[in-house]
Amino acid sequence: MHHSQDKIRELNPMKFTMTRDHKKRPAATLVSSLRRRTRLLPVLALVMATLAGCATSQTARDRALQERAQARWDALLAGDFDQAYSFLSPGYRSGISVTDFEIIFRTRRVQYTSAEYREHSCDEAICTVKVFVGYKIHRPLTGVTEWTSTSLLEERWINSNGNWWYLPES
């Protein structure tokens, strides 16, 4: 049988090559297949470049949100209420003064001791940011002077004119 394959090759001007599944196909078919595949390379490169651009701009947007959410908490923990107030949405700030904001925050029984941005998820221009906070509560119960714990808080942030703003629950 081996000799008959050699005769076929001599009679047929097309060369034969082995494929992955060990069936014999003419080399011309392989070249044609390779040409079809290489025609797609510029299209594939364009798609990848477009997706990379989207990922970069999305990453910058995500990074801006993460930085603002953490900066807000850093200001609150440092007692810089003017700075913390500046992260509130303009609409929310129109209904509460910085003095009232500070009074509300200072008179809470909960005292935050740490805060760390964890993650966020977005729906259009509204994002839910998760922040892991440490806190203390002074005299939560009779006989208990202080309660210390941690929690994962969810905050609502909105994007307006390219800026991220914290929007507290009403």
Structure notes:
There is one protein chain. With 170 residues, the protein is of the alpha+beta class. The protein has a domain at 69-166: Nuclear Transport Factor 2, Chain: A. It contains 6 helices and 6 strands; from the N terminus they run αββαααααββββ. β5 (144-160) and β6 (163-166) form a beta hairpin. It is globular, with a radius of gyration of 32 Å. It starts with a helix and ends with a strand.
Strand content: 25-35%
Order of helices and strands: HEEHHHHHEEEE
Number of strands: 6
Counted by DSSP, the helix tally is: 6
CATH class of the domain at 69-166: Alpha Beta
* Termini gap: 87 Å
Approximately how much helix is present in the residues?
40-55%
- Which parts are unreliable, with pLDDT below 50 for 5 consecutive residues or more? 13-19, 40-56
The biggest sheet amounts to: 4 strands, antiparallel
- CATH topological fold name of the domain at 69-166: Nuclear Transport Factor 2, Chain: A
Strand line-up of the largest beta sheet:
3-4-5-6
Oligomeric nature of the chains: single chain
CATH architecture of the domain at 69-166: Roll
The coarse overall form would be: globular
Structural class: alpha+beta
Mean pLDDT: 79
Spatial extent as radius of gyration: 32 Å
